[in-house]
Amino acid sequence: MDSTFIGNYDKGGHKVSLEITIHKSDQTIYKNNVAIPLFNTLNIMEMAGQDYSTMFDKDKGLFVEFTLKKDIKNAQLRYITTGHGGWEDGDEFVPKTNSIFLDGKMTFSFVPWRSDCGSYRLYNPASGNFPDGLSSSDLSRSNWCPGTVTNPDFIPLGDLKAGKHTIQIKIPQGASEGTSFSSWNVSGVLLGYQ
Questions:
Q1: 8-17, 35-44, 122-131: range with highest mean pLDDT
Q2: How far apart are CA 64 and CA 33, in angstroms?
Q3: Which of 28, 45, 80, 163 is a Cys-bridge partner for 50, taking CB atoms 3.0 to 4.6 Å apart?
Q4: How many degrees, rounded to 5, is the angle at CA 129 between CA 126 and CA 133?
Q5: pTM
Q6: Which residues are CB-contacts of 84 (< 8 A; sequence separation ≥ 6)?
Q7: Would you say 137 and 144 are in contact if contact means Cβ atoms under 8 Å apart?
Q8: 165 — pLDDT class (breaks 50, 70, 90)
């Protein structure tokens, strides 16, 4: 599924066109017939005052309970994560571990990071430029680069039995510095088949 997010308001609206190209792949393709959205912290209503997702400064992080009506085989978590905010010391520019717990047990842990952002400078004509010739869009970031797609990670969860389950995301979010704060956009969809 592809989507477009526009994070600003314009009285005349926006026009968006997408071109999708499908390439054959040697990757293992899972035949899922179950897709259950579990969480999404993106503040899609930012212009209406929706807060940024700063819950990761608490030890609990993001905690979600869900109930499966039937067993799911070969379950996976389709996980997307991007860190934002702060200046030099903010989570946007400092690598942070993302840990995922299923039913109280750590299932996956990694440091989402992109160090190839400078190669996309031509796609960022409005990026801030510094006196030394560096552009803001050149800087490495927490799993995203301006002008690029952030691909999901597919985290294997095994077979899940029907009943109640929990999923928890922990990220050591940095402290605020004055008016500057860090936040994380994370989304998770449970995939599998019955």
A1: 35-44
A2: 22
A3: 45
A4: 135
A5: 0.81
A6: 52, 90, 91, 92, 142, 182, 183, 184, 185
A7: no
A8: very high
